[in-house]
Amino acid sequence: MKKIFRYDEAILEGFKYLLSNYSDLFIIGQGLWSPWYVGNSMKDLDKLYGKERIIDTPVSEASCTGLAVGAGLVGMKSIIVHPRMDFMLYAVDPIVNQASKWSHMFGGENSSNVTIRAIINRGGEQGAQHSQSLHSWFAHIPGLRVVMPSTVCDARDLLIASALSEDPVLYIDDRWLYSQEDYLPEVKNIELVNQKPKIIENGSDLTIVASSYSTLLAKNAIYSLKKEGINCELIDLRVINPLDLDLVINSVNKTKSLLVIDGGWSSCGLSAEIIANVVENIDVTVLRYPPSRITLPFAPAPTSSFLEKEYYPNLKDIIDRVRCMHVK
Amino acid sequence: MNKLNELFNPNFYNKPIKIDNFNKEDLVNFFKLMTKIRLIEFHLADERKKGTIGGPVHLGIGQEAIAMGLSANLESSDYVFGAHRSHAHLLALGSSVKGLFAEILGKETGLSKGMGGSMHLSDRSVGFVGSVPIVAGTVPLAVGAGFAAKIAQKGNLSVSYLGDGATEEGVVQESLNLASLYKIPVIFMIENNLLSSHMHLSERQTSFDCSRFAKTNSIPYRMIDGNDIIEVYKASSCAVKNARNGGGPFLIEAITYRWLGHVDWREDVDVGLSRSIKELKMWKKRDPIERLENSLIKSGLWDKKSTDNLIKSIKDEIQILWDEALNDPYPEKSQTLKRVFCKK
Ligand SMILES: Cc1ncc(C[n+]2csc(CCOP(=O)(O)OP(=O)(O)O)c2C)c(N)n1
Q1: Which of A125, A308, A309, A310 to mutate to test the interface with B (most CBs of B within 10 A)?
Q2: How would you write B293-316 as a 3-class SS string?
Q3: For a disulfide at A78, which of A68, A170, A179, A304, Cβ 3.0-4.6 Å?
Q4: How would you write the pLDDT of chain A (328 residues) with one tens digit per residue?
Q5: CA B216 to chain centre
Q6: Is the Cβ–Cβ distance between B159 and B186 less than 8 Å?
Q7: Is the CB of B166 under 6 A from ligand 1?
Q8: 3-state DSSP assignment of residue A162
Q9: How many CB pairs under 8 A join A and B?
Q10: pLDDT means per 10 residues in chain B (344 residues)?
Q11: Which atom of ligand 1 is nearest to the CA of B166?
Q12: What spacing in Å lies between the alpha carbon of B163 and ligand 1's midpoint?
């Protein structure tokens, strides 16, 4: 019988696959020997594969990331883990100036194999510096592949594809997805370069585009909307840099309306890019309703759960918006 | 065994502290305030366990003498910066207990108007500019405030509280260099409690002594028993004088230990990779408050009964302030958007 895995267990499976099959792969980062920080997603890896390959580090994000980038430049498959994306901001130079530029600066002959795993961990009254989804920033950078798995299977397979990619990859997972469950098929070696957005739900009334946790939110909203006879098409972006929107454009041509849901801020963000890109590439007169988006309010995350409840987009927000767009 | 090793060994420095030439009234006040800070933190641990507090609380129980000894030398015109474990830093400056409680509960009446919680505290009325949980994030900011103090020539200074873990961040080395180069009146108070979340210093650095970073940056420093209020007071007094007299930065490395785990009420002896019940018990013998109490009792300045009364009256006060905070209103939901930019 096939076994059901949680999203975090699927990540763990991905790591096990990589560590078992590639002796030139190591993982470094904070909290890798601890039950904190990374949930079950790296549980006991140090015991199974040794503390030389699974390295828990000092509080030194910049140099540990630089180390991983450097090791990746000379052929190792390095993975650096940042338990919270916020802490990774100390490491922006090795990611943005170094790893992302290397191939281009040196004639495309060589780049860093590094995979940077950044975890989004919001809520729980942790406030503005423990909650940020900064994927849009990084998707702005040429030379840095950015992946955001939303499903259990992608959590494993995109991790493997990221680690095996010759390019620097930012792999972003969201702790709010960890309790999702699904079957895991056998590992197929997929190439990251070929990974594109996917249709998760077929529908003809409206196109919803999302990634990561927003995809899950949208999926749940769509189930409710179906009962009302509204059929939305849901596209999960999966890879947000480079962004391939052919599927989205086709879908919008079919449904004639577009709603983007993004866990980041709207200003200069992923949702803006998708709408702009679609509008540039279709005949806008086909649209039955102006393209719309649901994002975070343009404010840092507040701390108390009282204010948090209001801050994060929820099912109802999506359902209400779709209803309103559908009526028009 | 040299002094460095002794300082990190809980079998040493556990005797009553030497208080002979010290102002007795001050000592009693230190004892009272440290006891209060501890009881407040135990109260927070309880409420967190019960679930009344929704977010993480990083408690500094066992480390009270450091904030106390330094704060006693500061003025409200100085600039103090903390980090994730800063309740004591704030309270030792005389900030409002009720304001702290209300903040931790996310109430409008809190020190940060209910926007920040335990990890984002600020009280400019006592000189506490702010604490944030990004490790080492405030260290260069404290250098900047010290720089401003120097330019303004008002004789004030700034304080950067940081942990042994924070010294691993590159920005700390850069900050020490700048402070030294520009002779900035900033005191780096390293609370070396040997732990950074689940990892012991021995797994993160090749030496236990973080003051070596002062040495390489030509910054005067002292390495002291952080559980001895007199030692902390004296080193701080020296650092403060140095800064006010134009001597620039000073680094104090205060060796201490936190009694609870990294966060919340648990002791975390199971997840701290080098932390055992036995070690914790030994460190508890080096209790900064009890050692002062014993010294006060020995000198006839205090007695056990007074401690009992003190504890009772503090507990009553805590309960009243806590209940008040619980009944306070939350901020209007619209404040999330209204506070993005400052109104001033
Ligand atoms: C930049 C950054 N990296 C990692 C963390 C996670 N973290 C929070 S507190 C802490 C330990 C810091 O240790 P130390 O500075 O010694 O302070 P202590 O907790 O012992 O008081 C860590 C690693 C963080 N908050 N910020």
Answers
A1: A125
A2: HHHHHHCCCCCHHHHHHHHHHHHH
A3: A68
A4: 578 999 999 999 999 999 999 999 999 999 999 877 888 999 999 999 999 999 999 999 999 999 999 999 999 999 999 999 999 999 999 999 999 999 999 999 999 999 999 999 999 999 999 999 999 999 999 999 999 999 999 999 999 999 999 999 999 999 999 999 999 999 988 999 999 999 999 999 999 999 999 999 999 999 999 999 999 999 999 999 999 999 999 999 999 999 999 999 999 999 999 999 999 999 999 999 999 999 999 999 999 999 999 999 999 999 999 999 987 6
A5: 25
A6: yes
A7: yes
A8: helix
A9: 118
A10: 80 90 95 98 98 97 98 98 98 98 98 97 98 98 98 97 98 98 98 94 95 98 98 98 98 97 86 79 96 96 97 98 98 94 82
A11: 15
A12: 8
Residue B282 and residue B256: Cα distance in Å, rounded? 12
Q: Which residues of A touch B271 (CB under 8 A)?
A: 34-36
DSSP bridge partners of A79: A27, A115
Ligand 1 atom index nearest CA of B134: 26
Candidates A117, A215, A210; CA nearest to A171 is: A117
Q: What ipTM does the predicted assembly reach?
A: 0.95
Location of structure tokens 């699927």: A10
* pTM of the model as a whole: 0.96
Residue in chain A nearest B107 by alpha carbon: A304
- Indicate whether residue B62 lines ligand 1 (CB < 6 A): no
Q: Which of B205, B270, B337 to probe by mutation at the A interface, max A CB count within 10 Å?
A: B337
Q: Cα separations (Å) of B111 from A135, A304, B91?
A: 32, 14, 12
Establish whether the linkage from the previous residue to A242 is cis, with ω within 30° of 0. Answer: yes
Domain B22-337 has CATH 3.40.50.2000: no
Cα atoms in the 13 Å half-sphere on the side-chain side of A177: 32
CB of residue A37 inside a 6 A radius of ligand 1? no
| Integer CA distances (angstroms), A138 to A87, A144, A147, in order | 15, 7, 10
Nearest neighbour of A126 by CB, restricted to B55, B115, B331: B55
Q: In chain B, what are the domain boundaries?
A: 22-337
* Domain regions of chain A by residue span: 4-193, 198-325
CATH number of A4-193: 3.40.50.970
Predicted confidence (pLDDT) per residue in B79-120, tens digit:
999 999 999 999 999 999 999 999 999 999 999 999 999 999
Does domain A198-325 correspond to CATH entry 3.40.50.920? Answer: yes
Answer whether B137 sits within 8 Å of A307, measured CB to CB: no
